[in-house]
Design brief:
The protein is of the alpha/beta class and 964 residues long. Helix content is 46%, strand content 16%. Among the domains are: 197 residues, no CATH class; 273 residues, no CATH class; 71 residues, ACT-like. Chain A, domain 2 (Alpha-Beta Plaits, 2-Layer Sandwich), CATH 3.30.70.1150. The strands form 6 sheets. Strands 3, 4, 5, 6, 7, 8, 9, 10 and 11 form a 9-stranded mixed sheet that branches.
Length: 964
C-alpha cells in the first residue's frame, strides 16, 4: 500500500508540475504581486522624504557636533541630532506665552470699528504691541485687575541669575520669527532682559552602550514687547473681533490678530470666575521651531503650546493680578516647566507603513485565498478529481500533493512580501523580528489553505467560488478595519469577545498586522524595536493567543474538509460508519443475501408482469451470491436509484432494480434512449453516485464499502470528456499509466499502443494540447485512458458519440481486442450500437429488456437472429404503384395477411409490416406476381426486420411502459 501511494504521489506530482510549468507566467505575476503594494507604499515614502527637509526635527537636549547658536535670538538656535538619548534629569525652561508676530498684530486699519487700537504705522518699525481684550460684569473691578496683569514695570534692563526668578516676568514668543520677548505695560527704549538657560548635550544610546547627559548654560537676552489691555462691552463683541481678525488674515493675506481675551464674568473681590479665549492653531513650522524652545512632548513628537503652555500662562497672569488686587500677600508663581524623564529612542526618518493602516497589508496577504479556492473548485466542477479517483488515485496522495503545492506557492508569496517590504524600507517588515513575522505568516498561510479546502466542498462552480472568495476578503478586511479594530482598542471590552472574533481567519490576520504596526508606532516614543520573540509572552498584545487560534483552526479545518470531501455531509458519514460496523458484525455475504431477499420481494411486488429472462437473470445472481467464490468480475444485485422529488414533485426512478453478472472476456452493451438510466447505472458502478438500494460487487469487492480498492482495478470512459486543457494527449496517458503502476519501457509501449489504437499517433496529434483537440479527438483520448494499464473492468459511457464512421469502426475494433482480457460495460444510444453490431463481428449469448426499458446485450458466439426474433417478429413489404391505386394495393396486402399494418403511404409508395407467424414467403411472391397482371405495380420488395427497426421498437416500448 505504501509503495502504491508513493507511485500515485509521483504521478500526481509530475502531472501538476507539467501544468504549472505552462502556467509559469501566471504564477510569477501572482508571487510578484506584493511588489506592487510595496512599491506604491515605499515609493510614496521615498518621495515624501526627498521633498521634506533632509535634517530631522532636533532637540536641545541632544549632544551633537554640529550645534550652532545665534546669541542674538533664540530663533537662531539650530541643532542637528538624528537620535534622541535618555533624559534622566531635564533642564528647567521658562513658561512662554504665544503672541502674534509684530507684522500681524491688531492695529487701527479700519478692519475694526474701535479707535483704541495702535496706529498701523507701527508695523513698519516692528513695534506694534500685543493686544489683549477684556470684558466682565464689573468694569471697575476688571480695570483694576488689568492694571496688575504685567508687573513689575521696569524702566531699565534686568539681568537675572536663575530661571526661577523669571516668574515675575511674562516671557512670550511669536509664531513668525520664533524670537523670545517679555511683556510690559510700557517698554523703555532698548529695554532687555537677560537670564541663564541650560541646554542639554545628550549622548545617543547606540546598541547596548550606556548613555549619559550633560548640560551647557548659555546667557539669553530678550527684548521688551508692549502689551495693551482693551475693554469691550460683552463677550459677543470680543468673539466678533477675534474671528474677524483671524478670518481676514487667512483669506486676504492680511491679519489683525488679537493675542488673547478674558471674560471675568461676575468676578469681584470675593468671587473669581474666568473665561480665556486663545488661538489654538499652529502651522507645522511652529511645532518644529517650538520643539527646541519648550521640550514638552505630545504624541506626535511636537510641542502643542496652546494646550500645554498658553492656557496655564494666561490663567496664571490673571490669577496673580487678582491676588495682588486683594493685597493678602499671596502669589501664584509659575517658575518653570520641565520635560518628563525618558529613555533613549531613535527619531529615525519618516516611515509611512504604520500610517497607511493595516487594511492594504491584510488584503494583500488574503489575496491567495480565492486563487486556491478556484483551483480546487475547478477540479471539482470539471470532475477531474473523481476521474483521477476512479483510475486509482487515493485521497492521501491527492491531498498531500495539492496541499504542498499551495503551501509552496504561499511561502514564495510571503517571502516576496517580506523581501520587497524590507528592501523598500518599510519599518513594518524591517523593525519587527523576521523570525516572528515568518512564524505568524506561515501559520496563517496554512490556515488559509485549509480554509480554502473546507470552502471548496460547498462550491460546484468556479465563477461562484471566485466571486465569493474576492467578496470574502474585501468584506472581512473592511469589517476588521472598521469594527474589529475598535474592539481591540477598547480596554473595557472583555478579551473573550476579542478571542471569539479572532476565530474568523481574516480577523486573526488583522490582529497580527495591527500589533506589528502598533509596535512600530510605540518604538518612536519608547525604547522599542518592534515585536521580538520575547514579546510573544506579553499578554497585552495577544499574539500568543492568536497563534494558538490559528494552529487549532488549521487542524480543525483540515479534518472538516477531509470529512466533507469523503462523505459529502455529516449524515452520509454516520450512515457509512454504521454500514461498516454492521458489515463487520454480520458479514458481507450474509448481509448481501438478506438485503437481496428483501429487495427481490419488493421488486416482484412492484412489477405486475415481468419477462421470464429478467427473472432468470435475477435468479442466476441469487445463486452466484450464495457461492463463496463466484469468479465473476461484475455482479449487480438489484441496483436501484431514486431521485427524491422536490417542491411537491413525484420521485424520479432512474434505475428500477438491475441484476446482472459478467465474467472476464464479456462485453455488456446497455442500449436505450435518453433518460433510460444508462449513465446512472455507470455512475453507481463507478462511485459517482450512491445507489438508493441494492449493491454491486466488482472483483468480489462491494461498491458500498470497498470503492477505494475497486478504483485501482477499473478503467472509466465517462460520458463527458474529463480532461485537462493544458496537458497533451500523451501527458494524459502518461499520468494515468503511472497511476496504474506502469513504469519505464512498459509505460512508453502502453502509451504508443493506446495512441495508435484510437488514431491519435500520426501527425504529432499526441503532443498537442487538449484544448486544441476536436470533440472526436477528445472522445478517442478518453477511450484510450480507460483502457491503459490493463484494468480488469472497463466502463464506457457512450464512447462512440461524436465520432465519424471511420473512427467509430477503429474504436470498436479496439474494444473488441481489449475485451479478451477484461470485462467491458458500455452504454450507447440505439443508432450508435447498431453500427457496433454491423461493423464488428459480435455474437449474442443473451439479450433481454430489463425493467428500465433498455436492452442488455452480451457478446457470445450465437446468431443475431435471437435478437430479431425476440423484438422484431415481422417482415416489411414495400409496394410502389401509380397514385390512385393505394386502396387496391392495401386490399391486396390484407388478402395476404389480415394482420398486416400499413406504416406509411407517400406518393404511391406504401410500406406494410406483416407478422411472420402464419406467413409463407411463397404465397407472398405468388400473390404479387398475380397482381402484376391486373394492377400497375411498378416495384415491390420483401425484407426482414432490421436491427434499426428492433431498437426503435424497444425505444417506443420503453417510452410507453408504465412504471409502478
Amino acid at each position: 500500500m505504501g509503495g502504491s501511494r508513493l507511485e500515485q504521489t509521483n504521478a500526481l506530482f509530475r502531472k501538476n508540475l507539467m501544468i504549472q510549468r505552462r502556467a509559469c507566467k501566471t504564477n510569477c505575476c501572482l508571487v510578484l504581486f506584493p511588489l506592487l503594494l510595496c512599491s506604491v507604499v515605499g515609493g510614496l515614502q521615498i518621495a515624501i522624504r526627498r521633498s521634506s527637509s533632509t535634517e530631522p526635527p532636533t532637540r536641545l537636549d541632544c549632544a551633537c557636533s554640529n550645534v550652532t547658536i545665534d546669541e542674538n535670538a533664540m530663533g537662531g538656535l539650530s541643532l542637528g541630532c538624528p537620535d534622541e538619548c535618555p533624559l534622566p534629569r531635564a533642564p528647567r525652561w521658562p513658561p512662554l506665552l504665544q503672541i502674534p508676530p509684530s507684522q500681524y498684530r491688531a492695529v487701527g486699519d479700519g478692519l475694526f470699528p474701535f479707535t483704541d487700537l495702535p496706529d498701523a504705522s507701527c508695523r513698519a518699525t516692528g513695534s506694534c504691541p500685543a493686544t489683549f481684550l477684556v470684558t466682565g460684569g464689573n468694569q471697575s473691578f476688571v480695570t483694576s485687575v488689568m492694571d496688575n496683569m504685567f508687573f513689575p514695570d521696569h524702566s531699565a534692563s534686568v539681568n537675572l541669575t536663575d530661571v526661577a526668578t523669571l516668574s515675575e516676568f511674562v516671557l512670550a514668543t511669536d509664531d513668525g520669527t520664533f524670537k523670545q520677548s517679555f511683556l510690559q505695560n510700557k517698554c523703555a527704549p532698548n529695554q532687555t532682559l537677560s537670564y541663564p538657560e541650560q541646554f542639554g548635550n545628550e549622548i545617543a544610546n547606540r546598541g547596548n552602550s550606556l548613555c549619559a547627559s550633560a548640560y551647557q548654560t548659555l546667557e539669553i537676552d530678550v527684548q521688551c514687547t508692549e502689551a495693551l489691555m482693551r475693554w469691550r462691552d460683552n463677550l459677543k463683541t470680543i468673539n466678533d473681533e477675534l474671528y474677524r481678525g483671524y478670518y481676514q488674515g487667512n483669506n486676504q493675506n492680511k491679519t489683525d490678530e488679537i493675542a488673547a481675551a478674558y471674560d471675568f464674568l461676575s468676578s469681584d473681590q470675593g468671587n473669581f470666575n474666568l473665561i480665556i479665549s486663545y488661538n489654538s492653531s499652529n502651522s507645522d513650522d511652529v511645532y518644529y521651531a517650538v520643539e527646541f524652545l519648550i521640550p514638552i512632548l505630545n504624541e506626535g513628537g511636537s510641542v502643542d503650546i496652546p494646550n500645554f503652555a498658553q492656557v496655564p500662562r494666561l490663567a496664571n497672569m490673571a490669577s496673580n493680578a487678582y491676588l495682588q488686587l486683594r493685597q493678602n500677600g499671596f502669589k501664584m508663581s509659575f517658575d518653570f516647566v520641565k520635560d518628563m524623564p525618558r529613555v533613549a529612542r531613535h527619531l529615525g526618518q519618516f516611515d509611512i507603513s504604520p500610517l497607511v493602516g493595516q487594511l492594504p497589508f491584510v488584503w494583500t496577504m488574503e489575496l491567495l485565498f480565492p486563487v486556491i479556492l478556484t483551483n480546487l473548485v475547478y477540479e471539482r466542477q470539471k470532475k477531474l478529481r473523481i476521474m483521477m479517483k476512479m483510475h486509482g488515485l487515493g485521497d492521501l496522495p491527492y491531498w498531500a500533493i495539492s496541499y504542498c503545492y499551495f503551501l509552496l506557492l504561499s511561502l514564495l508569496y510571503v517571502m516576496s512580501f517580506m523581501l520587497f517590504g524590507s528592501v523598500l524600507g518599510l519599518s513594518l517588515f524591517r523593525q519587527n523580528s523576521y523570525g516572528v513575522q515568518f512564524i505568524f505568516y506561515f501559520a496563517y498561510m496554512n490556515l488559509q489553505i485549509s480554509f480554502a479546502f473546507l470552502m471548496a466542498t460547498y462550491f460546484s462552480s468556479v465563477r461562484t467560488a471566485a466571486v465569493t472568495g474576492y467578496l470574502y476578503i474585501f468584506v472581512s478586511g473592511l469589517l476588521a478595519d472598521v469594527l474589529f479594530r475598535h474592539y481591540v482598542e477598547d480596554v473595557y471590552l472583555s478579551r473573550r469577545w476579542i478571542t471569539l472574533m479572532e476565530l474568523v481567519p481574516a480577523f486573526s490576520l488583522y490582529r497580527v498586522v495591527y500589533e506589528f504596526s502598533q509596535s512600530i508606532l510605540a518604538g518612536r516614543y519608547m525604547a522599542s524595536s518592534g515585536i521580538q520573540c520575547v514579546d510573544l509572552s506579553d499578554p497585552t498584545n495577544g499574539l500568543a493567543g492568536v497563534l494558538t487560534i490559528m494552529i487549532l483552526e488549521w487542524f480543525l479545518f483540515l479534518l472538516s474538509a477531509f470529512y466533507l470531501d469523503r462523505f459529502g455531509s455529516l449524515t452520509n458519514g454516520i450512515r457509512r460508519l454504521a454500514l461498516l460496523v454492521r458489515s463487520w458484525i454480520v458479514g458481507k455475504h450474509f448481509q448481501a443475501a438478506q438485503q437481496q431477499n428483501t429487495q427481490l420481494q419488493e421488486f416482484r411486488a412492484s412489477i405486475e408482469v415481468e419477462r421470464a429472462d429478467v427473472i432468470k437473470e435475477r435468479e442466476m445472481v441469487e445463486q452466484i451470491l450464495q457461492e463463496s467464490s463466484s469468479g465473476y468480475s461484475v455482479i449487480c444485485d438489484n441496483l436501484k436509484k431514486v431521485y427524491r422529488g422536490q417542491d411537491g414533485n413525484a420521485d424520479k426512478i432512474a434505475v428500477r432494480g438491475i441484476s446482472l453478472c459478467m465474467s472476464h472476456g464479456q462485453c455488456l452493451g446497455v442500449l436505450g434512449p435518453n433518460g433510460a438510466g444508462k449513465t446512472t447505472l455507470i455512475n453507481m458502478l463507478t462511485g459517482f453516485s450512491k445507489p438508493t438500494s441494492g449493491t454491486a460487487y466488482i472483483e468480489g469487492m462491494d461498491i458500498l464499502l470497498d470503492m477505494d480498492r475497486i478504483y485501482t482495478g477499473i478503467g472509466v470512459c465517462p460520458q463527458d470528456d474529463l480532461l485537462w486543457e493544458n496537458l497533451t494527449g500523451r501527458e494524459h496517458l502518461m499520468f494515468y499509466g503511472r497511476l496504474k503502476k506502469l513504469k519505464g519501457t512498459a509505460l512508453a509501449e502502453a502509451i504508443e499502443e493506446s495512441l495508435r489504437s484510437v488514431r491519435l499517433f500520426a501527425g504529432g496529434v499526441a503532443d498537442k494540447l487538449v484544448r486544441k483537440y476536436s470533440g472526436g479527438m477528445k472522445r478517442r483520448l478518453s477511450v484510450a485512458i480507460s483502457l491503459i494499464g490493463n484494468p480488469k473492468v472497463v466502463y464506457m459511457d457512450e464512447p462512440s458519440s461524436g465520432l465519424d464512421p471511420a473512427s467509430r469502426k477503429d474504436l470498436w475494433n479496439a474494444v473488441k481486442s481489449a475485451k479478451q482480457e477484461r470485462a467491458i460495460i458500455l452504454t450507447s444510444k440505439l443508432h450508435h450500437f447498431i453500427s457496433i453490431l454491423k461493423g464488428a463481428i459480435f455474437r449474442l449469448r443473451d439479450c433481454f429488456k430489463n425493467p428500465n426499458g433498455f436492452v442488455q446485450i452480451r457478446t457470445e458466439p450465437k446468431d443475431l437472429d435471437a435478437l430479431k426474433d425476440r423484438y422484431g417478429g415481422s417482415c416489411v413489404l414495400t409496394v410502389t404503384a401509380p397514385v390512385g391505386e393505394e386502396e387496391e394495393i392495401e386490399r391486396l396486402v390484407r388478402s395476404i395477411s389480415p394482420a398486416a399494418n400499413r406504416v406509411y403511404c407517400l406518393s404511391g409508395t406504401q410500406k406494410f409490416e406483416i407478422p411472420k407467424e402464419g406467413m409463407k414467403i411463397s404465397e407472398v411472391f405468388r400473390a404479387m406476381e398475380d397482381a402484376k397482371s391486373r394492377l400497375s405495380i411498378l416495384a415491390w420488395g420483401l425484407t426482414d426486420t432490421t436491427l434499426e427497426d428492433v431498437f426503435v421498437r424497444v425505444a417506443k416500448d420503453s417510452d410507453s411502459s408504465t412504471v409502478t
